[in-house]
Amino acid sequence: MEGYQPPTAADADENGNELPHAQPDPKPDHMSLTFRDQANYEVQFRLKATTKLGKAMDHFSAKSERDRQTLRFLFEGQRVLPESTMESFGLEDVDVVDVHLEQLGGGNMCLA
């Protein structure tokens, strides 16, 4: 048979019974995600890959005592939306989301 390799002594216990092959670690149920603001205030979350990030955003705004509507959440320069999940946005375990205060204006220049 092609690809078959007979078991060796390292693949058997002391009675000669074949040991089960190590399975790759399954994807973790929960992943770690950190939200960090401009003052380096951090809140770390353990989330399922399918949990909507809006829950974590609401919790961060409550912990930081800021209105949720005044905060912008960015990962690698892209805005993270509340309906996104870690899975849908491509976030991985131990990633960090940057939190910024919304800024209005500043784009108008007056030339004299």
From TrEMBL:
It comes from the Eukaryota. PROSITE patterns: UBIQUITIN_2. This is Ubiquitin-like domain-containing protein. Residues 31-106 form the Ubiquitin-like domain. It comes from Oleoguttula mirabilis. InterPro entries: Rad60/SUMO-like_dom, Ubiquitin-like_dom, Ubiquitin-like_domsf. Gene3D superfamilies: Phosphatidylinositol 3-kinase Catalytic Subunit, Chain A, domain 1 (3.10.20.90). Pfam families: Rad60-SLD. Residues 1-32 are annotated as: Disordered.
